[in-house]
Amino acid sequence: MGLLALFFGLSECLIRMKVSPDDSFEKHRNLFFNSDKSNAVFGDSHGAQDFMGRQDFINLSFPSESVDIIAAKIKLYFSSRRMEKVILQADPHMFSEYRIKENVNDYIRLFEDPRQPLLQILTPRHRKYLLFYWKALISGRGFKSKFRVNPDGSQTIEDREAGTEQETPKDFDLQTRVRLQKPQENFEKSVSVKNYQTMLQDLKERQAQVCLVTFPVSPEYAGEAARFPDFEKARNFFQAMAAQYGFSYVNYWNSLQDPHLFRNDDHLNVQGAKALTQRMVNDCYA
Hints:
The protein is α/β, with parallel strands linked by helices. About 45% of the residues lie in helices and about 10% in strands.
């Protein structure tokens, strides 16, 4: 019992002293609570990495967040702020099986109260990584995050040693990635779709200026995805939902052909993101 208490005590110190100071999630969470912007972007890594450089928007997208989490964050963020422009990610993979997350309540609660939990080791996001943290410490790998959270909330991925933007091989297991991100069959009947529609209804009732955005993928990704009709079906769904609720919809799915604008097959690099961002705001709100 004493050894177990010692392990948890030292683990708590490890998290607070080594992990948290460079934790991209904690930086994102701080921006969520401290921003006063009335214009915001919500999504997952596509939103986080592909929209940047606008001082009039806060980017509250974060990697791997599901429809349920995005909807909850919108409600929580604008519960105490004026709501004006909302750019909302509208990508087919949001309705894939791997994005259906269970037990998201613990995660959502982290955006309900700005205070830190009394013990970090008790939070699910740290508890499951305790052994990984100790291995990182013992191996000397350190805890520098590859994700850099910018002042506007956008994120870039850096090479840990060189400090430059990290490139992921564009052909990295593309077929597997596309299959993983394929919308589930009959996705229109899924809970995720129902939650997305409820989110749109809530935004309409708040009289928000909403723009649904399908973010770009590389020509190679688009070509592979064309083998699966549900990708196009999902994009058509987003377009129909935008029309139904009176919102704007812009589709950049296969609109960028220059490979130098992509970090990997479904994320832009900084150059591509800055170029797309200005175009997006113009297309959404011109």
